């Protein structure tokens, strides 16, 4: 259920129960604990109850716990296997790019000196210029303490991808510019022909990774 919530949307207990393959009562019991622990925020609209991830720091915690938990069980059936493969190739992790695509983009930013890594990630002066040339704003929202860039351990690649304001802004740009399209209502993404060309031209991301 926590992995499903990483798409950033608000879900009902019934929807999460179906995603996890458990009863609605079981899902509600777990959600009550997650809400009480501050990991999940509750949103009520009329008689309906929705829940969502409490914020970016919680999303990072879920992703990193999943990475340390070991590989998930092998999916059963062709549809489940296809969905699992698509999620591993490219997806959103809360509001930034993840999967093989997210890691490849992060590696490319590092290789070109647009991002540097020591104890964590930091956008370089060249990186600020690169983001600016694309028209991607990195200014913090008033009152926000979210860092410009941070490392998030990818649960399928077991390597870090870019999060923070820079990661979120790049993901938003990729979706709004048509580089990526969502597959259904989940977190999986499909890179478009325009996206493959742009990622190769701007960052040198191999075409097979962005396929």
Write a structural description.
With 211 residues, the protein is α+β, with helices and mostly antiparallel strands. The protein folds into 2 domains: 2-54, Arc Repressor Mutant, subunit A; 78-203, no CATH class. The protein has 9 helices and 10 strands. It has helices at residues 2-5, 13-20, 24-36, 56-68, 78-89, 99-111, 125-134, 164-176, 193-203, and strands at 40-45, 48-53, 91-93, 96-98, 115-117, 121-123, 150-153, 160-163, 180-182, 189-191. The strands form 5 sheets. A two-stranded antiparallel sheet has the order 1-2. It has a two-stranded antiparallel sheet with strand order 3-4. A hairpin with a 6-residue loop joins β9 and β10. α2 (13-20) crosses α3 (24-36). The chain starts with a helix and ends in an 8-residue tail after the last helix. The model has no long low-confidence stretch (mean pLDDT 86).
Instruction: List unreliable stretches of 5+ residues.
Output: none
Mean pLDDT: 86
What is the number of helices? 9
Helix proportion: 40-55%
Order of strands, widest sheet? 1-2
User: How many DSSP E strands?
Assistant: 10
Question: What's a concise summary of this model?
Answer:
The protein has two domains: about 1-55, Winged helix-like DNA-binding domain superfamily/Winged helix DNA-binding domain (Arc Repressor Mutant, subunit A), CATH 1.10.10.10; about 80-205, no CATH class.
Task: Based on the model shown, name its key terms.
211 residues; Arc Repressor Mutant, subunit A; 2 domains; two-stranded antiparallel ribbon; 9 helices; 10 strands
How do the strands and helices of this protein lay out in sequence?
Elements: H1 2-5, H2 13-20, H3 24-36, E1 40-45, E2 48-53, H4 56-68, H5 78-89, E3 91-93, E4 96-98, H6 99-111, E5 115-117, E6 121-123, H7 125-134, E7 150-153, E8 160-163, H8 164-176, E9 180-182, E10 189-191, H9 193-203
Antiparallel strand pairs: 1-2, 3-4, 5-6, 7-8, 9-10
